[in-house]
Every structure is written in C-alpha cells, then in structure tokens.
Amino acid sequence: MDDGLRRHAALALVVAVTCTLVWAAAGAGTFWPAWVWLGAAVTVTAHTGALHVARTAPAARPLAVHAWVSATVTSVVVAVWLVTSPGSRWVLWPVISLGALLSVHAVLQRVPRAASRRELELTDRVAELTRTRRDAVDVQALELRRIERDLHDGAQALLVALSMQLGRAQLAIASHPQAPTLTPVADLVQGARQHADTAIAELRHLVQGIAPPILADRGLVEAVGAVARRAGTPVTVRADVVHRSPPAVEVAAYFIVAEAVTNAVKHARTAHRPLRVDVELTGTHDRLTVRVADDGVGGADPGGGGLAGLAQRVAALDGTFTVGDARDGGTVLEAVLGYGHGR
Amino acid sequence: MRVVLVEDNVLLREGLVALLRDQGVDVLEALGDASRLSSVVRAARAGGGLDAVVLDVRLPPTFSDEGIRAALRLREDFPGVGVLVLSQYVELAYSHELLGGGPGGVGYLLKERVADVAEFVDALERVSTGGTALDREVIAEIVRARGAGAAGPLGQLTAREQEVLALMAEGRSNAAVAARLHVGAGAVEKHVSSIFAKLRLPPATTDHRRVLAVLVHLRATAG
After folding, report:
1. How many cross-chain Cβ pairs, A to B, lie less than 8 Å apart?
2. Which residue of B has its CA nearest to A164?
3. Higher pLDDT residue, A1 or B203?
4. Which of B134, B85, B140, B130 has its CA nearest to residue B111?
5. Residue A30: Cβ within 10 Å count
6. Residues 6+ away with beta carbon under 8 Å from A173
7. Alpha helices of chain A — where are they, by DSSP H?
8. pLDDT at residue B99, rounded to an integer
9. Which of A51, A45, A90, A36 is nearest to A70 (CA)?
10. Average pLDDT for residues A142-148, to the nearest whole number?
11. Could you report the per-residue pLDDT of A176-206, keeping only the tens digit for each?
12. Considering only CB atoms, which chain B residues are within 8 Å of A157?
C-alpha cells in the first residue's frame, strides 16, 4: 500500500472516530457523524482510485477512471439512501444507470478496432522485413570483417611470403658465380617482386575501404582517433561510449566520420585559416549518435556523392541522417544509429 | 646479430627464419605467440645476449594488437633490446605508441619490406643499436596529414629537402640517405642543416633523436 494513502486513511479514521466519540459524549442524538464517515470514505476511495488509474496502461485508463468514478458515486448514493430513506426504492435507478453506462463502455473497449485482415498482415510483414533487413546488414558487416581476416591470414600473407621468396631469389642470383650472365633472370625476378608488392598494396587499400583493420582490432573510438590523426587539420574527438556497438553500426559510424572529415578538409581549402573539426560519439544502450561539426564555409550539398552514400548507409540501419549549416557558419552532420535490438 | 622472432603464420615465420639465417643473423627462437616472450627474452639475455625482437602485430589469442602490446612491454622491461614490429598495414596510432615507449631502438615496418633483404637487415641493425626504422608509409601518412602544400611548414622545404626529410624520418643516417639519393655526404649534411633551420629544430646528436625531433615536430604542427 502506498505511504500517502496509508496516512490519508489513518487521518480519515481518526477524524471520523473522534466525531463519533463527540456525538456519544453529547448525548447521542441524531447520528450526524454518519456524514463525516461518508466524507472520509469518499476521499479515501478517490485517492485509492487515482493511484490505481496511474498504474493502469494508458490505453485502459479511460475505462479505469470511469469504473472508479461509478463505484464511488454508487457507494455515496447507497450510503445516503441507507441514512435517509431506507424504506423507498429510488436508489435502484441511479445504480442501474451507472452500471449500464459502465457496461457499455467496457464492451466498446473490448471490440477491436475495425482493422482489416490485410492491414494486420501488412503490419506483420513490415515488422518482419525490418527485422530481416537489419539482420542482413549485421551479417554483411560481420562477413566483411571475416573477409578482412581471411585476406590477412590468407592471400595477403601468401603474397608477402611470395615477395619474401623472390627477394631471397634476387640475393641468390646476385651472389651466383655467373651473376653477370643472369641479368635477364634478375630483371624478371625483380619485375615479379614488383607485381607482388603492387598486389599487396592494392589488397591493403581494398581492405581499408571495406573493413578498416584498426576498427576490428581496437574498436570505433580508436579508429575515429586514427581518422583524426590523418586529417591534416585539428580534429577533436569526444567519445562518451559505454561499450562497443554492433559491427554494422561501428562500420557506418566510422565511414560517416571519415567522409565528413575528408569533406570538411576538401571544402576548406579556399579558407585562409586552419579549419577546426569536432567529432562527438555518444553511445547509449540502444543507439549511437555521431556528430561532426566544422567551422568551414558551410553550404554542404546533401545530394553530393559522398553524403548521399552516407545517407544510404544510415537508411539501411533505419537511422536518421541530417546535414546542415551551423548557426555560426560551418557544417554540422548528425547521424543517429539504432542497435536494432528490442523490436 | 641475435634475434627472437614472433610470428603466428607458419609460412611467414619459416620464410623469415630462412631469410635471416641466409644473412648470418642468429635466430634464437621463432615463436608463434607472445605468451612465453618475456621468459625467452630473459633467458636469451642471460645466455649469449639478445639484440632485437621481431614481432607481428596480430597474434593469438585475440589476433588484434597483441604484438603492439607485447612490444610496449618489452620496451619497458628490456630497454636494451631493439623491437621491430612488422605488420600488413600501418597505423599512425601504433607508430605513435611505439615511439613514445622509451629510448631504446624501435622499428615499425610493413611486412613486404622484408623482401628487400638488404634494406630489412639494415633496419634490423639500426633497431638493434638503439636506432629507429619507420616505414615510408608511416612517414607519408604523417606528411600527408601535415599537408605538404605551400601553406604548411613543409611547403618551405625544397623537393630535395622533403625527400631527405622523409628518409631521415624513416631512421636513416646521413650516409644512408646519401647512398639512397646517390649524392655525396656533404650535400646531405647541407640539406639536413637547412631542414632543421627552416623547421626551427635544435640540432640533434644521434640519428634516433633526430628522427624523434622530426616526428615530434610533424605531429605537433599537425595538431
């Protein structure tokens, strides 16, 4: 029982009992304390009702209010009837009317909205598609991370081993007794090693573009720090992130920051002072907010290739993405990325 | 030279061991992870001595940045042992941590640099003797971040001075820079003092301190 209600009930009881004692001491004439008892009972009932209604689900609240009001009014009517004219039957009419009204309300509440089957099916379908699309995005992010690992341990390592062996071959040729006659072979090996090194560099570049290794190895905050380090302009990173986000969210957030910082630097080339960029990452239990603000010239085009690509990334996560001019100049970009659980 | 090797990929580990032994480097142990590294290093030092440890970045059990963490521990516990980290990608965050980890020899190179055997052995020797070996990709990233445009401090340097600066930042001595650019030692010295004057850096005595001065300057001005 609620403490406030308990105090209220105790006070009402004390007042009513005191009045009754006063009535008895004064010679016990007409039983006027009945009205005090009635008043006390009504306030306590209303209080109990209010507490109960507050705990009811919002959808069921109107009916709960109705039920409590009806119950209180009925009790008062019955009490008044008992005290004043227990012989007559007038009391039946208000009680029956209140009961009927409450029944009609309850019946209406129970009848489901006239939703068509089709509408229900579509609602289910949308929920299912939302869930499976999010699953697909999460799986894709995990797959890319796995591909990065596989390349690292497989193709890239093999190419490094190949390059290493070609390097040893070059040394072997150089120290061969007939080295001068082997120049054409040495050139071929040199060419092969160059190709291997180019392939290694290209794979590294590719991996950086789909699943940056530092993101997998150290998480979003460090990876964003790496973006800041490479930016070529002062970038502050403020991160309030309790734990790591799902891979799909981390990857999206990383590329949002990378693209936003690159854009800021690119468009600030004309400005005559160094550009400042502020990056904020705020993670809660169910979403990550990424905010990148610069003090450049503003006027970003949300339809431009880079920003449109980011908007697509965010849309695939059912997030929100806004780009606009800051009040005091510059551009502000904000993305809110939900973790997609608890739907 | 006596070294210990940590590389989890068998192919690369065996390749590295063969390549180093070809060059007369004494590979004391080739480990697959860093769990026993401290005791191996301690034993090697108690035995015939140890010049350097060559480490991969991604190692068991988590395959993330164990190599960097092991390298930082080594630099703290065994300042006399050079630490050369090899990786399939370079991160400025890692080079920053490695260079900040103390005064001993330290290196951070892309794995494929090993194929240029003479260069690799040269880098390993520098690291063994307290010097520095930074991959040219690391330097390029720092310079790119710095913005080598006319407005930046690097814009005051001539193209030749920028080349010398990059080679110097990789950890090379004047003589090595001269050999690399096919110029005389005197010419390099002239470039170096001009670079230090233009960047307003105090003249540094050792190659390692010189590298640090250059990197600190680049990083500081990069913000």
Report:
1. 94
2. B115
3. B203
4. B85
5. 7
6. A179, A182, A185, A186, A189
7. 3-25, 33-55, 61-84, 92-110, 117-153, 155-174, 183-210, 213-218, 220-230, 247-267, 305-316
8. 86
9. A45
10. 94
11. 999 999 999 999 999 999 999 999 999 999 9
12. 9, 11-12, 88
Q: Rounded CA gap, A71 and A64, in Å?
A: 11
Q: How far is residue B122's CA from residue B52's CA, in Å, rounded to a whole number?
A: 13
The residue in chain A having the minimum alpha-carbon distance to the alpha carbon of residue B218 is A232
**Residues in chain B closer than 8 A to A214 (CB atoms):** 91, 93
Residue B117 to residue A160, Cβ atoms within 8 A: no
Tens of pLDDT, residue by residue, chain B (223 residues): 999 999 999 999 999 999 999 999 999 999 999 999 999 999 999 999 999 999 999 999 999 999 999 999 999 999 999 999 999 998 988 998 998 877 889 999 999 999 999 999 999 999 999 989 999 988 888 877 765 444 566 777 888 988 888 888 888 888 889 999 999 989 998 988 888 888 777 777 666 667 777 776 666 554 3
Of residues B9, B93, B118, nearest to A225 (C-beta):
B93
Please tell me which of the candidates B22, B88, B141 has its beta carbon nearest to residue A168. B22
Cβ pair A232:B96 closer than 8 A? no
Smallest Cβ–Cβ distance between A167 and the set B116, B147, B222 belongs to B116
State whether B116 and A230 contact (CB < 8 Å).
Answer: no
Q: Which long-range contacts (CB under 8 A, 24 or more apart) does A317-325 make?
A: A317/A134, A317/A137, A317/A248, A317/A249, A317/A252, A318/A130, A318/A134, A319/A252, A324/A300, A325/A298, A325/A299, A325/A300
Measured CA to CA, the distance from residue B89 to residue A213 in angstroms comes to 8
For A73-123, write each residue's pLDDT tens digit.
888 888 888 878 777 888 888 889 999 999 998 888 776 665 678 888 898
| Separation between Cα atoms, residue B171 and residue B214, nearest integer Å | 10
Of B109, B118, B69, B112, residue with least CA distance to B90: B109
pTM, 2 dp:
0.74
A240 conformational bin, left if phi > 0, alpha if psi -120 to 50, beta if neither: beta
What ipTM was estimated for this complex? 0.88
Q: Please answer yes or no on whether A152 and B88 come within 8 Å at the CB atom.
A: yes
Considering only CB atoms, which chain A residues are within 8 Å of B11?
157-158, 161
Which positions 9-48 of B are in contact with A (Cβ < 8 Å)? Answer: 9, 11-12, 15-16, 18-19, 22
Distance from CA of A63 to the nearest CA of B (A): 58
| DSSP labels, A250-317 | HHHHHHHHHHHHHHHHHHTTT-SS---EEEEEEE-SSEEEEEEEE-S-----TTSHHHHHHHHHHHHT
CB within 8 Å: B115 and A167: yes
Which residue in chain B is spatially nearest to A204 when comparing CA positions?
B89
Q: Which two tokens stand for residue B216?
A: 């600190």
How many CB atoms within 10 Å of residue A109? 12
